[in-house]
Amino acid sequence: MTTFRDAWQEALYGPDGFYRRQRPAMHFRTSVHASSLFGQAIARLAEQLDLSEVVDIGAGTGELGKVLRTEGLSVLDIELDDQLPDRLTGLVIANEWLDNVPCELVEWDEDGVPRYLLADLTPGAVVTGNNLDWLQQWWPGEPGDRAEVGRARDESWQDVVRRLEPGAVAIAVDYGHLRATRPPFGTLTGFRSGQECAPEPDGSCDITAHVALDSLAAAVDGQLVSQRDALTQLGLSGRRPPLELAQTDPMRYLAELSSAGEAGELLDPSGLGGFGWVWTATEADTVRRASRALSA
Ligand SMILES: C[S@@+](CC[C@H](N)C(=O)[O-])C[C@H]1O[C@@H](n2cnc3c(N)ncnc32)[C@H](O)[C@@H]1O
After folding, report:
1. Per-residue pLDDT tens for 12-22?
2. Which superkingdom does the taxonomy of this entry point to (predicted)?
3. Residue with the nearest Cα to atom 18 of ligand 1?
4. CA 157, CA 278: separation in Å to the nearest integer?
5. Does 268 reside within a domain?
6. Which residues line ligand 1 (CB under 6 A)?
7. What CATH number has the domain bearing residue 168?
8. Looking at the whole model, is its pTM more than 0.85?
9. Which of 105, 181, 238, 248 is least buried, going by the fewest C-beta atoms within 10 A?
10. Measuring from atom 15 of ligand 1, which residue has the nearest CA?
11. No. of H helices and E strands in the chain?
12. Ligand 1 atom nearest 28 alpha carbon
Protein backbone atom coordinates (compact mmCIF):
# COMPACT_ATOMS: atom_id res chain seq x y z
CA MET A 1 0.00 0.00 0.00
CA THR A 2 1.19 3.57 -0.72
CA THR A 3 2.07 5.95 2.09
CA PHE A 4 -0.42 8.59 3.18
CA ARG A 5 1.73 11.20 1.45
CA ASP A 6 1.25 9.57 -1.96
CA ALA A 7 -2.49 9.24 -1.36
CA TRP A 8 -2.62 12.91 -0.26
CA GLN A 9 -0.75 13.99 -3.42
CA GLU A 10 -3.20 12.12 -5.64
CA ALA A 11 -6.22 13.32 -3.67
CA LEU A 12 -5.32 17.00 -4.07
CA TYR A 13 -3.45 17.16 -7.37
CA GLY A 14 -4.15 13.94 -9.30
CA PRO A 15 -6.19 14.13 -12.52
CA ASP A 16 -9.44 14.28 -10.55
CA GLY A 17 -7.90 15.87 -7.44
CA PHE A 18 -9.54 18.37 -5.14
CA TYR A 19 -7.57 21.37 -6.46
CA ARG A 20 -8.30 20.41 -10.07
CA ARG A 21 -12.01 20.90 -9.41
CA GLN A 22 -12.45 23.28 -6.49
CA ARG A 23 -11.93 26.95 -5.69
CA PRO A 24 -10.17 27.52 -2.34
CA ALA A 25 -12.56 30.31 -1.25
CA MET A 26 -15.47 27.84 -1.30
CA HIS A 27 -13.81 25.72 1.40
CA PHE A 28 -11.70 27.91 3.68
CA ARG A 29 -10.82 31.52 4.37
CA THR A 30 -7.27 32.82 3.95
CA SER A 31 -5.90 36.31 4.60
CA VAL A 32 -6.48 37.26 0.98
CA HIS A 33 -10.16 36.35 1.29
CA ALA A 34 -10.46 38.11 4.65
CA SER A 35 -9.51 41.58 3.45
CA SER A 36 -7.84 43.62 0.72
CA LEU A 37 -5.86 45.21 3.57
CA PHE A 38 -3.57 42.17 3.37
CA GLY A 39 -2.70 42.88 -0.28
CA GLN A 40 -2.36 46.59 0.39
CA ALA A 41 0.18 45.83 3.13
CA ILE A 42 2.10 43.58 0.72
CA ALA A 43 2.07 46.46 -1.77
CA ARG A 44 3.56 48.79 0.86
CA LEU A 45 6.23 46.19 1.56
CA ALA A 46 7.07 46.00 -2.16
CA GLU A 47 7.36 49.78 -2.23
CA GLN A 48 9.69 49.81 0.77
CA LEU A 49 11.84 47.18 -0.92
CA ASP A 50 11.76 49.13 -4.18
CA LEU A 51 10.26 46.15 -6.00
CA SER A 52 7.59 46.53 -8.67
CA GLU A 53 6.85 42.88 -9.47
CA VAL A 54 5.19 40.22 -7.35
CA VAL A 55 5.10 36.47 -8.02
CA ASP A 56 2.21 34.77 -6.20
CA ILE A 57 2.89 31.04 -5.87
CA GLY A 58 -0.18 28.90 -5.19
CA ALA A 59 -2.28 31.88 -6.21
CA GLY A 60 -5.62 30.05 -6.04
CA THR A 61 -8.15 32.24 -7.84
CA GLY A 62 -5.83 35.23 -7.81
CA GLU A 63 -7.45 37.44 -5.16
CA LEU A 64 -4.08 38.76 -3.95
CA GLY A 65 -2.97 39.65 -7.47
CA LYS A 66 -6.16 41.61 -8.08
CA VAL A 67 -5.44 43.88 -5.11
CA LEU A 68 -1.76 44.24 -6.01
CA ARG A 69 -2.53 45.24 -9.60
CA THR A 70 -4.88 47.92 -8.30
CA GLU A 71 -1.91 49.17 -6.28
CA GLY A 72 0.13 49.47 -9.50
CA LEU A 73 2.26 46.32 -9.19
CA SER A 74 2.83 43.81 -11.93
CA VAL A 75 1.86 40.32 -10.79
CA LEU A 76 2.61 36.81 -12.00
CA ASP A 77 0.16 34.22 -10.62
CA ILE A 78 1.54 30.69 -10.44
CA GLU A 79 -0.91 27.81 -10.16
CA LEU A 80 -0.74 24.07 -10.60
CA ASP A 81 0.16 23.70 -14.27
CA ASP A 82 2.18 26.90 -14.57
CA GLN A 83 5.91 26.69 -15.05
CA LEU A 84 7.81 28.45 -12.27
CA PRO A 85 10.37 30.73 -14.01
CA ASP A 86 14.03 29.67 -13.66
CA ARG A 87 14.87 33.07 -12.22
CA LEU A 88 12.57 35.03 -9.92
CA THR A 89 12.74 38.80 -9.50
CA GLY A 90 10.76 41.11 -7.24
CA LEU A 91 8.72 39.97 -4.27
CA VAL A 92 7.75 36.30 -4.23
CA ILE A 93 4.83 35.36 -1.98
CA ALA A 94 3.26 32.02 -1.15
CA ASN A 95 0.23 32.44 1.08
CA GLU A 96 -0.95 29.11 2.51
CA TRP A 97 0.73 27.02 -0.17
CA LEU A 98 3.17 24.93 1.88
CA ASP A 99 0.55 23.50 4.28
CA ASN A 100 -0.93 21.90 1.15
CA VAL A 101 2.35 20.32 0.08
CA PRO A 102 1.84 16.65 0.98
CA CYS A 103 4.37 15.25 3.44
CA GLU A 104 5.03 11.90 5.07
CA LEU A 105 3.13 11.12 8.26
CA VAL A 106 4.85 9.01 10.89
CA GLU A 107 3.84 7.38 14.13
CA TRP A 108 6.14 6.03 16.84
CA ASP A 109 5.36 2.38 17.69
CA GLU A 110 5.34 0.95 21.21
CA ASP A 111 9.12 0.46 21.01
CA GLY A 112 9.61 4.13 20.15
CA VAL A 113 10.45 3.37 16.48
CA PRO A 114 8.95 5.86 13.97
CA ARG A 115 7.02 4.23 11.11
CA TYR A 116 5.44 5.76 8.00
CA LEU A 117 1.67 5.87 7.99
CA LEU A 118 0.02 4.28 4.98
CA ALA A 119 -2.95 5.57 3.00
CA ASP A 120 -5.36 4.04 5.52
CA LEU A 121 -3.32 5.53 8.42
CA THR A 122 -2.00 2.16 9.57
CA PRO A 123 1.76 1.89 10.30
CA GLY A 124 4.13 0.70 7.59
CA ALA A 125 7.90 0.72 7.05
CA VAL A 126 10.39 2.04 9.59
CA VAL A 127 11.55 5.62 8.90
CA THR A 128 15.25 5.83 7.95
CA GLY A 129 17.69 8.17 6.20
CA ASN A 130 17.00 11.90 5.72
CA ASN A 131 13.48 11.66 7.11
CA LEU A 132 14.77 10.07 10.30
CA ASP A 133 17.48 12.74 10.56
CA TRP A 134 14.80 15.40 10.12
CA LEU A 135 12.63 13.90 12.87
CA GLN A 136 15.57 13.71 15.26
CA GLN A 137 16.46 17.34 14.66
CA TRP A 138 13.02 18.90 14.40
CA TRP A 139 10.26 16.65 15.72
CA PRO A 140 11.34 13.90 18.14
CA GLY A 141 8.52 11.73 19.46
CA GLU A 142 7.53 9.04 21.92
CA PRO A 143 5.47 5.83 21.57
CA GLY A 144 2.00 6.74 20.28
CA ASP A 145 3.00 10.20 18.99
CA ARG A 146 2.39 11.24 15.41
CA ALA A 147 4.36 13.75 13.32
CA GLU A 148 4.44 15.28 9.87
CA VAL A 149 7.88 15.23 8.25
CA GLY A 150 8.53 18.80 7.08
CA ARG A 151 11.19 17.97 4.48
CA ALA A 152 8.78 18.13 1.54
CA ARG A 153 7.82 21.69 2.49
CA ASP A 154 11.43 22.71 3.13
CA GLU A 155 12.49 21.34 -0.24
CA SER A 156 9.59 22.93 -2.13
CA TRP A 157 10.49 26.32 -0.68
CA GLN A 158 14.23 25.82 -1.22
CA ASP A 159 13.43 25.24 -4.88
CA VAL A 160 11.77 28.67 -4.96
CA VAL A 161 14.43 30.50 -2.96
CA ARG A 162 17.31 29.18 -5.04
CA ARG A 163 15.74 30.86 -8.10
CA LEU A 164 15.81 34.35 -6.55
CA GLU A 165 17.73 37.02 -8.47
CA PRO A 166 19.86 39.46 -6.46
CA GLY A 167 17.54 41.98 -4.80
CA ALA A 168 14.54 39.64 -4.77
CA VAL A 169 12.72 38.69 -1.57
CA ALA A 170 10.64 35.56 -0.91
CA ILE A 171 8.03 35.19 1.81
CA ALA A 172 6.20 32.01 2.76
CA VAL A 173 3.14 32.72 4.90
CA ASP A 174 1.50 29.85 6.73
CA TYR A 175 0.18 28.40 9.93
CA GLY A 176 2.72 26.36 11.79
CA HIS A 177 4.51 25.35 14.91
CA LEU A 178 7.96 25.37 16.48
CA ARG A 179 9.98 22.57 17.99
CA ALA A 180 9.23 23.56 21.59
CA THR A 181 5.47 23.24 21.04
CA ARG A 182 4.89 20.58 18.38
CA PRO A 183 1.43 19.01 18.72
CA PRO A 184 2.07 15.39 19.86
CA PHE A 185 -0.55 13.92 17.52
CA GLY A 186 0.20 16.11 14.50
CA THR A 187 -2.10 18.54 12.71
CA LEU A 188 -3.49 16.66 9.72
CA THR A 189 -6.93 18.12 8.94
CA GLY A 190 -9.52 18.16 6.18
CA PHE A 191 -11.68 21.07 5.06
CA ARG A 192 -14.85 20.93 3.06
CA SER A 193 -17.32 23.78 2.47
CA GLY A 194 -15.93 25.87 5.31
CA GLN A 195 -16.00 23.06 7.89
CA GLU A 196 -13.25 20.88 9.31
CA CYS A 197 -13.72 17.25 8.28
CA ALA A 198 -11.86 13.93 8.39
CA PRO A 199 -8.83 14.16 6.04
CA GLU A 200 -10.02 11.42 3.69
CA PRO A 201 -7.58 11.19 0.74
CA ASP A 202 -10.39 10.65 -1.78
CA GLY A 203 -10.44 14.06 -3.49
CA SER A 204 -13.57 15.19 -1.67
CA CYS A 205 -11.84 17.68 0.66
CA ASP A 206 -8.79 19.84 1.15
CA ILE A 207 -6.06 18.12 3.19
CA THR A 208 -3.63 20.23 5.14
CA ALA A 209 -1.05 20.03 7.91
CA HIS A 210 0.70 22.87 9.71
CA VAL A 211 4.22 23.84 8.64
CA ALA A 212 7.31 23.34 10.83
CA LEU A 213 8.24 27.00 10.53
CA ASP A 214 11.61 26.79 12.31
CA SER A 215 12.79 23.99 10.02
CA LEU A 216 11.53 25.95 7.02
CA ALA A 217 13.40 29.10 8.08
CA ALA A 218 16.61 27.14 8.67
CA ALA A 219 16.30 25.46 5.24
CA VAL A 220 16.30 28.79 3.37
CA ASP A 221 18.38 30.99 5.66
CA GLY A 222 15.14 32.80 6.44
CA GLN A 223 13.83 34.99 9.23
CA LEU A 224 10.58 34.16 10.99
CA VAL A 225 8.15 36.86 12.08
CA SER A 226 4.51 36.54 13.07
CA GLN A 227 1.88 37.91 10.69
CA ARG A 228 0.68 40.15 13.50
CA ASP A 229 4.13 41.74 13.89
CA ALA A 230 4.77 41.94 10.16
CA LEU A 231 1.44 43.59 9.34
CA THR A 232 1.73 45.94 12.31
CA GLN A 233 5.16 47.01 11.03
CA LEU A 234 3.54 47.56 7.64
CA GLY A 235 1.03 49.97 9.14
CA LEU A 236 -2.03 47.85 9.89
CA SER A 237 -3.99 48.63 13.02
CA GLY A 238 -7.18 47.21 14.46
CA ARG A 239 -7.83 50.39 16.45
CA ARG A 240 -11.41 51.58 16.22
CA PRO A 241 -12.10 55.15 15.03
CA PRO A 242 -13.01 57.70 17.75
CA LEU A 243 -16.75 57.73 18.57
CA GLU A 244 -17.00 61.47 17.86
CA LEU A 245 -16.36 60.70 14.20
CA ALA A 246 -19.76 58.98 14.11
CA GLN A 247 -21.32 62.41 14.72
CA THR A 248 -19.12 64.53 12.48
CA ASP A 249 -18.62 62.12 9.55
CA PRO A 250 -20.81 59.01 9.88
CA MET A 251 -19.80 57.52 6.51
CA ARG A 252 -16.12 57.79 7.30
CA TYR A 253 -16.77 56.39 10.78
CA LEU A 254 -18.46 53.31 9.29
CA ALA A 255 -15.71 52.80 6.73
CA GLU A 256 -12.98 53.06 9.38
CA LEU A 257 -14.90 50.76 11.72
CA SER A 258 -15.24 48.12 9.04
CA SER A 259 -11.55 48.44 8.16
CA ALA A 260 -10.57 48.09 11.85
CA GLY A 261 -12.65 44.90 12.02
CA GLU A 262 -10.89 43.44 8.96
CA ALA A 263 -7.47 44.45 10.30
CA GLY A 264 -8.41 42.85 13.62
CA GLU A 265 -9.04 39.53 11.87
CA LEU A 266 -5.70 39.67 10.04
CA LEU A 267 -3.86 40.55 13.27
CA ASP A 268 -5.66 38.19 15.68
CA PRO A 269 -2.84 36.29 17.45
CA SER A 270 -5.05 33.22 17.87
CA GLY A 271 -6.04 33.28 14.19
CA LEU A 272 -4.45 34.73 11.07
CA GLY A 273 -2.16 37.00 13.11
CA GLY A 274 -0.54 33.89 14.61
CA PHE A 275 0.63 32.72 11.17
CA GLY A 276 4.36 32.84 10.47
CA TRP A 277 6.06 34.79 7.70
CA VAL A 278 9.40 33.23 6.72
CA TRP A 279 11.28 35.77 4.63
CA THR A 280 14.52 35.41 2.72
CA ALA A 281 16.40 38.16 0.90
CA THR A 282 19.34 37.70 -1.39
CA GLU A 283 21.77 40.57 -0.89
CA ALA A 284 22.92 42.62 2.08
CA ASP A 285 21.10 45.84 1.18
CA THR A 286 17.82 43.99 0.58
CA VAL A 287 18.24 42.07 3.82
CA ARG A 288 18.61 45.40 5.65
CA ARG A 289 15.54 46.88 3.98
CA ALA A 290 13.41 43.78 4.57
CA SER A 291 14.53 43.64 8.14
CA ARG A 292 13.56 47.29 8.67
CA ALA A 293 10.20 46.74 6.96
CA LEU A 294 9.23 43.55 8.78
CA SER A 295 10.93 43.38 12.17
CA ALA A 296 9.63 45.26 15.17
C1 LIG B 1 -4.67 26.95 0.32
S2 LIG B 1 -4.68 27.41 -1.33
C3 LIG B 1 -4.14 29.10 -1.15
C4 LIG B 1 -4.61 30.00 -2.26
C5 LIG B 1 -4.22 31.47 -2.12
N6 LIG B 1 -2.79 31.67 -2.02
C7 LIG B 1 -4.89 32.09 -0.90
O8 LIG B 1 -4.19 32.58 -0.02
O9 LIG B 1 -6.13 32.08 -0.84
C10 LIG B 1 -3.22 26.61 -1.98
C11 LIG B 1 -3.07 26.75 -3.46
O12 LIG B 1 -1.78 26.24 -3.85
C13 LIG B 1 -1.93 25.65 -5.13
N14 LIG B 1 -0.79 24.77 -5.37
C15 LIG B 1 -0.52 23.60 -4.80
N16 LIG B 1 0.63 23.07 -5.27
C17 LIG B 1 1.11 23.95 -6.18
C18 LIG B 1 2.26 23.99 -7.02
N19 LIG B 1 3.15 23.01 -7.02
N20 LIG B 1 2.43 25.07 -7.81
C21 LIG B 1 1.52 26.07 -7.81
N22 LIG B 1 0.41 26.09 -7.05
C23 LIG B 1 0.20 25.05 -6.25
C24 LIG B 1 -3.27 24.93 -5.03
O25 LIG B 1 -3.80 24.61 -6.31
C26 LIG B 1 -4.10 25.98 -4.28
O27 LIG B 1 -4.76 26.86 -5.15
Report:
1. 999 999 999 98
2. Bacteria
3. 80
4. 10
5. yes
6. 19, 24, 30, 32-33, 57-60, 78-80, 95-97, 100
7. 3.40.50.12710
8. yes
9. 181
10. 58
11. 12, 15
12. 1
